[in-house]
Amino acid sequence: MIRLDATQLLENAGDLAELLVGTVNGGASVGFLAPLARAQALAWWRERAGDVAAGRLAVWAALDGDRVLGTVGLAFPGKANSRHRAEIVKLMVHPDARGRGLGRGLLTTAENAAAAAGITLLHLDTETGSPAERLYRSAGWTPAGAIPDYAADPRGVLRPTTIYYKHVPATAPTR
Fold this sequence. Notes:
34% of the residues lie in helices and 33% in strands. It is of the alpha+beta class. The chain has a 7-stranded mixed β-sheet, sandwiched between helices. β6 and β7 form a beta hairpin. α2 packs across α3. The two termini are 23 Å apart.
């Protein structure tokens, strides 16, 4: 896993876009409707570069040579009373690479980086009943509850979302 700086994110935006398109068009609910066009995915990734450069977002990629097989993000809130927490965002593994432990590896990478940054509480949301729930539960995440009709899945059907949290031991002072 490598952490992408803003320049690397832009250099890999095409591969990241392909990952996002494959994930959404493969049925995973990560905030987009299918069919997702490559141009839309590319624009979305390029827009993230500013947040990465400003330190509001950290992005890691799992690579096989030059090919991006997976990604995860860690979003840091800007409020003074929230500096102890962060959100796991856009954990994606290419459909061709699933079942190899990449999702777990990406999640662990983000958790360890959060702890190193002084983060003590992580949270995320995922579609209720999705395969991702098995990963989060097996990795020690706690469900806080489900919200009905929270977001549309890639087909446009409203689905419930489960909110998860996890306490992590900080290894550095809070940001």
